[in-house]
Specification:
Elements: E1 7-11, E2 16-21, E3 28-33, E4 45-51, H1 59-62, E5 65-72, E6 82-87, E7 91-97, H2 102-106, E8 113-119, E9 126-127, E10 132-133, E11 138-145, E12 159-165, E13 179-185, E14 192-196, E15 207-211, E16 221-228, E17 231-237, E18 241-250, E19 255-268, E20 280-288, E21 291-297, E22 304-310, E23 318-324, E24 332-339, E25 348-356, E26 361-369, E27 374-375, E28 379-384, E29 392-397, E30 431-439, E31 443-453, E32 463-464, H3 468-499, H4 505-509, H5 517-520, H6 523-537, H7 548-553, E33 561-566, E34 573-578, H8 581-587, H9 599-612, H10 622-625, E35 627-630, H11 633-646
Parallel strand pairs: 33-35
Antiparallel strand pairs: 1-31, 2-3, 3-4, 4-5, 6-7, 7-8, 8-11, 9-10, 12-13, 13-14, 14-15, 16-17, 17-18, 18-19, 20-21, 21-22, 22-23, 24-25, 25-26, 26-27, 26-28, 29-30, 30-31, 31-32, 33-34
Helix pairs in contact: 3-6
Main location: endoplasmic reticulum
Keywords: Endoplasmic reticulum, ER-Golgi transport, Membrane, Protein transport, Repeat, Transmembrane, Transmembrane helix, Transport, WD repeat
GO biological process, one term: protein transport
């Protein structure tokens, strides 16, 4: 477990319900909250917090949070419940969910979608002829709109619970073409509104879709992914279902094409989970345009799970990965993910953080391999307890954009008199991933996780939070060391029993396994034998590991296609790596993807993989989806015969 990195903490004069980093990661965090309408002494505010640049090595400066801008809101209106921001050249356009006063709501008017323009303070002081001046930052109100349908109830409790914008594409010409989605809370009829977010005050013509979930089920969480140029995918979850809908939107004409016409249900929580009670979805995020991760709270507060689903163009999603959180996390309140930069092959690492009801934050990493379209198992990065004094309301990662690299050195030119630049790899300065958490107790905590290049010798190397292969190797060495120490203790203990006449060695050695007694009965040679046993159990060459998950995640195999074959007699399995997937398919025409196998074939492969020690149920089917499967006719016929006998 990685020790906690540097962090900063600040206390504000109001409870905090929403938080979001600057989309361009320029060092600002926007938070919002307040005491709501009629709560004297507790202001409703939006504050922009400046996080001091982590490149400063002074630890005291790195851990500092300073208030840059404050936006005081009316005490007659509700507190800030949700936030989303668009980046401008010198600041932000921030959307906020703030209910109108109760009097206006009773009159049938609730302009809950607000927008503000925030201008950052300059990074450096501007000098004039007479003195040094520093223009002050400012925030100004732009407008407000009522995006939800009007409710007929005289006193409505509805508010804008969720607000989410599509991710920014910093290096793309479509970077500022973003859409947004809001969802209601405590409404008679739940509603989701998808809108054009390029305008600070969306009108009716900017509404892309208006969704009313089935049976009035309230939307628990939602997210948006970019799937192409001006193409987006929206996913949202209720307590028991996950839905998806795609949009192709023309920002010039404000015309949208929806696929399908109405949102499709891609997954439902199975019946019977939790001793008659269903588990519930709590959070939902895209890992990429085709995979989502869901946070699940088990029934009766019996724990929390992370589940990864693969989305197909049509039909239900497939759960490809599942992990139980540590036992101290009985229920979770928030989750966020951050996809780090990808390399030329499309491989990348993804950070996942979960806030528990016990005021702890668990952070993991996932490795994504593009060539096989698979994810590694979750690797724990950090676990922190008692992050705040009171319950957390939200956590969020800062977005990570690949840093600008220095230009390559100039090569030598024939006839050049001056010496050319030397070939030295100059990586950008230290890079950090920030994780912010806010609470009912008015506190903000920002953790700064250091990132490192996967290959420091490569100028264009992608960044990672932790190295999975190195971590697995350290775990093997740790287990081997403990095993060696245990054997040495056994050797010394047996030697003592042998040399001590009064000791009853026969009764004590009878407790040992039969295979261990011959070794321990030879004290003179025990150390050498034990060392041989331990060294043989520690893999010194990772590519030689026979488990599918290790083969897929190891760097020497990530660019190759793997095929699992059985022998003609059906008594053994072999795993081969091929550089060219197309050539593999031509050589093994009978090879199939996991999804192409019949159910009974999958079951037979699973049984044989488990018997061979190459796969376990806990690893999930995501590992199997990245492998080709080839079987001889005898094996297939045998399985078919078994199936027929079962009918």
């Amino acid at each position: 477990m990685t020790p906690r990195s540097s962090y900063a903490k600040a206390t504000l004069p109001f409870p905090i319900f929403a938080a979001e980093f600057d989309p361009y990661n320029r060092g600002y965090l926007v938070v919002g909250g307040g005491g709501g309408e009629g709560r004297s002494g507790v202001p409703n505010q939006i504050a922009s917090l400046l996080v001091v640049k982590c490149k400063i090595l002074d630890v005291s400066n790195r851990a500092n949070i300073a208030t840059a801008i404050e936006v005081d809101l009316s005490r007659d209106e509700d507190s800030v419940q949700s936030l989303g921001s668009l980046a401008t050249k010198d600041g932000l356009i921030t959307f906020a969910g703030i209910n109108s006063s109760q009097a206006e709501q009773n009159a049938g008017k609730n302009e809950h979608l607000r927008s503000f323009e925030i201008k950052y303070p300059p990074r450096k002081k501007q000098k004039t002829e007479d003195a040094v001046t520093e223009p002050k930052p400012k925030a100004s109100f732009i407008g407000k709109r009522a995006a939800f349908k009007q409710e007929p109830a005289a006193k409505s409790e509805r508010y804008q619970r969720l607000l989410r914008l599509s991710p920014v594409q910093r290096q793309s010409v479509d970077g500022n073409r973003r859409i947004g989605a809001i969802a209601s809370g405590l409404a008679k009829q739940a509603e989701v509104v998808v809108f054009n977010a390029t305008t600070p005050t969306p009108e009716a013509a900017d509404v892309i879709a208006r969704i009313e979930p089935e049976d009035g089920a309230e939307v628990v969480d939602l997210d948006i992914a970019n799937t192409g140029s001006n193409e987006f995918s929206l996913t949202y979850c209720t307590d028991y279902d996950i839905f998806e809908q795609s949009y192709q939107y023309d920002f010039a004409t404000r015309k949208a094409q929806r696929t399908p016409k109405g949102p499709r249900r891609i997954h439902s929580m199975p019946d019977g989970e939790g001793a008659g009670l269903k588990h519930k979805f709590r959070c939902l995020r895209f890992l990429d345009s085709q995979n989502v991760i869901a946070l699940v709270n088990k029934a009766d507060k019996k724990g929390t799970e992370l589940r990864v689903f693969h989305l197909y163009p049509t039909g239900p999603a497939s759960m490809i990965l599942q992990m139980q959180l540590p036992s101290h996390v009985k229920q979770a309140v928030s989750m966020d993910v951050c996809a780090l930069d990808a390399d030329s092959k499309g491989d990348r690492q993804i950070a996942v953080a979960v806030a528990g009801q016990d005021i702890s934050i668990e952070t993991w990493t996932l490795n994504y391999t593009r060539s096989t379209d698979t994810f590694s198992r979750f690797q724990s990065f950090q676990s922190v307890r008692d992050v705040h004094a009171h319950q957390m309301t939200k956590i969020c990662f800062s977005p990570f954009h690949s840093p600008v690299r220095a230009p390559a050195p100039t090569p030598a030119v024939a006839g050049q008199t001056t010496a050319p630049e030397t070939e030295t790899v100059q990586n950008p300065g230290p890079q950090y991933l920030k994780l912010a958490s806010v609470s009912y107790g008015n506190t903000v905590v920002v953790d700064a996780f250091p990132l490192s290049p996967l290959n420091p010798k490569d100028r264009n190397s992608r960044y990672i939070l932790q190295d999975h292969v190195a971590k697995v190797r350290r775990q093997y060495l740790t287990y081997g060391l403990f095993a060696f120490l245990a054997l040495m203790v056994g050797v010394l203990f047996q030697a003592y029993l042998t040399l001590a006449p009064s000791a009853s060695s026969s009764s004590l050695s009878g407790l040992l396994p039969p295979g261990a007694r011959p070794i321990l009965d030879k004290p003179a040679h025990a150390a050498h034998d034990a060392a041989s046993v331990v060294s043989s159990s520690i893999p010194t060459n990772i590519p030689g590991v026979q488990r599918l998950a290790d083969l897929l995640s190891h760097p020497s195999h990530t660019s190759k296609a793997l095929i699992v074959r059985d022998s003609p007699t059906g008594t053994d399995l072999s795993v081969d790596a091929h550089v060219d997937k197309d050539a593999l398919l031509k050589e093994h025409v009978e090879a199939k993807h996991w999804d192409e196998l019949h159910e009974h074939q999958r079951a037979e492969w699973k049984r044989r993989l488990i018997d061979a020690g190459r796969w376990a149920e806990s690893e999930g089917e995501s590992v199997l989806k990245g492998v080709m499967w080839s079987s001889y006719a005898g094996f297939v016929g045998g399985v078919a015969g078994e199936v027929l006998r079962e009918l």
